[in-house]
Design a protein that fits this description.
Radius of gyration: 21 Å
Number of helices: 16
Oligomer: single chain
Structural class: alpha/beta
Largest sheet: 6 strands, parallel
């Protein structure tokens, strides 16, 4: 027998299977973190790509906004501290800087309410606000080539200097997060977000793919309309430690970040499995079923059609937002839900649609703390109390000789079968 451990909330769970049944463990490439992440970030700021140094862009007295994508308190602190140090060398004072915490429609309401921020010291020095996508008074900055109107946060749009800071990692709809994503959806109006994410029904709007991805394309145009002055990106490993930082022009810094991210997160496998166990990657990614479900896309890439998948995700906050739950309970056929979304679109509804498509293709078993009633009656999925029980259920579907693959960090892994 062999034991495979999968992240589950803030802990791990073990699956014991016969050695002969283990096909592979599919995870991001082992990548050493930067010896000194603070120094790595400073070096990126001192050697910007395709842009002047930030210290040459900012001026004393200028209104400066930094859009920050939450990456955990310690990383947030490193990013903001490095930016403040760089700007203070040009005479910028703390009171001239506003931090806007980017809105992320893929996180549920309960997760957004409990976002970690900057810690006591930085929070006391700076003005920190969360972007409210439904607030009035957002500023129109123009239309994309597809005719989508882009409205942005007033504080951001009217700033003299606009800076973006956050991680570049696989994104289930935009391909990769970071850069332009901090403009839309980060500081965009809900209407603009909905119109762009409506394009996420397209098959090319998927994790790890930028080519032909209509959502990525619209995000890039929205960021161009916003006239961003500077971007600071980080790329992390599966332990969420900083590997490298890139700074400078929004597009050039993003391109270099993605180049490294693909080396870490894209993982090839030799053949498809009969069953796949996938964990989103622990508490940063499995707060709710809605947040955990996107990792199933990776499982679909490496499992045989009609076979079996087990989702191992704690989901301590429950199922997800109201729209996700409503879409899942009202519709059992993805075609019907798609027609509904064409009339009344929501990002949460889109995530329900994607989960429904998974259920059309594989037998899915869920290991979580969500009451069985919701999982089986509302979402029409099988449940298991433990990961080992899930293995027994999957064996009943695929047979005793079924080969199993494991994806411990599903949200950070972009698996594909070698051609």
């Amino acid at each position: 027998m062999v034991e495979v451990w999968l992240p589950y909330g803030s802990t791990e769970v073990c699956v014991r299977i016969p050695t002969a049944n283990l096909l592979d463990v599919v995870e991001p490439k082992k990548t050493a973190s930067a010896k000194n992440p603070q120094t790595e970030i400073k070096n990126a700021l001192q050697n910007p790509l395709g842009a002047k140094r930030l210290a040459e862009i900012v001026k004393p007295g200028a209104k400066i906004t930094v859009v920050l994508k939450d990456s955990g308190v310690s990383v947030n602190q490193m990013l903001i501290s490095a930016l403040l140090e760089e700007m203070s060398s040009a005479g910028v004072k703390d009171e001239d800087v506003t931090i806007i915490v980017a809105y992320d429609p893929l996180r549920t309401v309960s997760s957004r309410q409990n976002l970690p921020m900057l810690g006591e010291e930085l929070s006391s020095r700076l003005k920190v606000i969360k972007h409210n996508s439904e607030a009035g008074g957002q500023v129109y900055v123009g239309k994309t080539s597809n005719g989508i109107e882009i409205h942005l946060d007033k504080v951001f749009a009217e700033a003299d200097v606009k800076i973006l800071a956050g991680p570049v990692e696989p994104h289930p709809i935009a391909g990769y997060s970071g850069g332009r994503e901090l403009v839309l959806p980060g500081v965009a109006s809900l209407d603009s977000i909905r119109e762009v994410f409506r394009l996420g029904i397209d098959g090319k709007a998927k994790k790890g793919n930028l080519e032909g991805n209509p959502v990525h394309h619209e995000m890039v145009e929205a960021a161009s309309l916003a006239q961003v002055d500077f971007a600071l990106n980080i790329v992390r490993n599966s332990e969420l430690d900083i590997v490298k930082a890139f700074a400078g022009d929004i597009n050039k810094a993003f391109e270099e970040s993605v180049r490294l991210a693909e080396k870490i997160y894209r993982v090839s496998v030799e053949s498809r499995a009969d069953m796949v166990f996938v964990s989103p990657g622990g508490s940063s990614f499995d707060g709710s079923l809605q947040e955990a479900a996107p990792c199933l896309d990776g499982a679909l890439e490496i499992v045989k059609r009609g076979k079996a998948v087990a989702l191992v995700a704690e989901c301590a906050s429950g199922c997800g937002d109201k729209d996700f739950l409503e879409a899942s309970s009202r519709f059992s056929n993805p075609k019907d839900l798609r027609r509904y979304l064409e009339r009344r679109f929501s990002v949460s509804g889109l995530m329900a649609y994607r989960l429904m498509n998974v259920l059309q293709r594989v037998n899915l078993v869920v290991v979580s703390v969500i009451p069985d009633y919701y999982v089986s009656r509302v979402f029409r999925m099988k449940t298991a109390r433990t990961a080992n029980e899930a293995y027994r259920l999957l064996v009943e579907t695929v047979g005793n000789r079924g080969k199993a693959s494991f994806i411990p960090y599903g949200n950070l892994t972009v698996p594909f079968v070698k051609a």
